């Protein structure tokens, strides 16, 4: 029986349409398939993970990257997070094969009716395809490409792997890529600690990271969040009670910066620069992890020591006044009688002013009879009572002069002034104008354990510890003395501390250096000359040794010889250098005479944990190490005799290199004993508070004074501190290395040496101790008028003539008789 003509027409039409559709689809496939990107490396897709910087004890120091991303594994994703994203984006994700045909149909209808694709039909798998391989344009070509890629992805990856890719790659606004980064950015905690309402808020972001952003559009973001919560309830992912509790929650999102474990921004920037120079443009996105040599505990102590030391220095100079004002009124344009400050408005304006050195900004709301009321950026109102003492606000006039104590607060402040509060919020303080740097390293291998490049990185990013070229002054003298001791002089060698006049070759320029205070001591032993920091003696040492031999010797400590000045002022530290270099040179004195190169970057790992860089291991070989090395050498000689020298063990391959000796151990021992005298009886006496007989060091103060230094050490820690202005501004005539820099050094070393036992440096072979006459440096048999001194055995002085000993004894007898006459 033949079908009616119209039915046959309909069947043929349907068949034609279906056939045409199949042929069109096949044609599109054949056209697009060669143009699709390959999926062979899908499992190895590398996410743009930021550079992470860590301390030596694995504490986070810094994060660098355009994209904030913290990868998370599928098994670590909470179930509530999975359900929230399914409800928001693709509730049939675990059922379909990568494509939602009903959604596709909706997109086709939208295109036919409006001429545009408004969205819909993009499954999670399709979003993965688009985010990884394709552009985001709304075209049929892109849509079909998504479909084809989605099928391929579903064939190659499991559903859990696809979902893991999705939640790690998806952009969620505010530079956050992936759910873990978004949780940290918006809520300051990991995704596992978020509430249901917070999870739903993040799940609403893929559809519109800007439109539904809780920071930019909190009202629209809440509507989107509540819709997702409703979908979760509808799909039985949550209970009615869960839904009711979550929907009642306010929008609690805010911008949260990355929280580091250790505040070491100068170190973090050094690591960033190293990564950029080593790995090129991809360094911020390739997932490198840089491990530094920094000790997290000592770094925190170093930073606080610098802050405290500069605060104390600055307080001696006087108060410079408010930073700025929020008030539109002034003395020329006074406020109306009925005007009152708006605390809420001022509080919001303070939010743009960064906390510096732990000191928060605050605006003055009122001044009444010694009582001052302030408001902070957090809206907190603080009342301070200054009725009894206003001496903190004596005006800065010059580096040596402060004004009188003000009679009232109105002499110093006005309503609307922006000032700083200390960390405990109980006093008005100010940010110092002066700067400081601290470098502390291990003399055993050169690893830097703490580094502070300034008062606050966000006040000034210039790393003074590494880059500030300043004259070290007298802290350079131990290097001059080390050359003298190695060249054949002794700690008892007598040098004349008397005026020196130095003229240039033409005689036109004359230099007349002097000692601090302008006094001279005449003939003086090297030991006393160094711990009393006599300038004339250092100059005469250089003159006797020769400038060029002196330069060559000092270059052993890590200085470039060509950069060392070829004139006698090198004796007084006229050479510009960095705190890092000074710490490097003092490490030689600490470890017994070996040069170790400072380094901050210990190793670098890639995203898989593979080590891609490791700093070469160079260590000091001390006396015990030397014995072990000689024993090992003897065994190696035995192997060579047995023709077994070609065999190398893994331990030998991994053995560190040994640091080169640059200073004779006997000369180093004697110089170390002198630098301990600097602490016990010289310019570093303030450090006796540490009660450590095993520390040595030297102050340094340049003309002006402009720079203040203290470099010192214990056997296992070498630390340098510099204080000064970034300009050539003077510190003040009463400021020295011992008053400005040494207190910072003491605060830091107190912590650095807390667990270090007292170190007794062994006396090297060839060093002897004998009694000498301190007046002439000669050996003496007189036990009452003598002092003990160390000498290299071959440099022992002669005994003084008996006549001289009798003279000193007769003087002593006469002095005793004079005392008897007095009393």
Automatic annotation (TrEMBL):
GO cellular component: outer membrane-bounded periplasmic space; plasma membrane
Catalytic activity field: [GlcNAc-(1->4)-Mur2Ac(oyl-L-Ala-gamma-D-Glu-L-Lys-D-Ala-D-Ala)](n)-di-trans,octa-cis-undecaprenyl diphosphate + beta-D-GlcNAc-(1->4)-Mur2Ac(oyl-L-Ala-gamma-D-Glu-L-Lys-D-Ala-D-Ala)-di-trans,octa-cis-undecaprenyl diphosphate = [GlcNAc-(1->4)-Mur2Ac(oyl-L-Ala-gamma-D-Glu-L-Lys-D-Ala-D-Ala)](n+1)-di-trans,octa-cis-undecaprenyl diphosphate + di-trans,octa-cis-undecaprenyl diphosphate + H(+); Preferential cleavage: (Ac)2-L-Lys-D-Ala-|-D-Ala. Also transpeptidation of peptidyl-alanyl moieties that are N-acyl substituents of D-alanine
Keyword Transmembrane recorded: yes
GO MF annotations in UniProt: penicillin binding; peptidoglycan glycosyltransferase activity; serine-type D-Ala-D-Ala carboxypeptidase activity
Keyword Transmembrane carried by entry: yes
Domain Glycosyl transferase family: 58-232
Subcellular location: Cell inner membrane
Entry superkingdom: Bacteria
TM regions (residue ranges): 9-32
Pathway assignment: Glycan biosynthesis; Cell wall biogenesis; peptidoglycan biosynthesis
Function: Cell wall formation. Synthesis of cross-linked peptidoglycan from the lipid intermediates. The enzyme has a penicillin-insensitive transglycosylase N-terminal domain (formation of linear glycan strands) and a penicillin-sensitive transpeptidase C-terminal domain (cross-linking of the peptide subunits).
Family: In the C-terminal section; belongs to the transpeptidase family. In the N-terminal section; belongs to the glycosyltransferase 51 family.
Protein name from the UniProt record: Penicillin-binding protein 1A
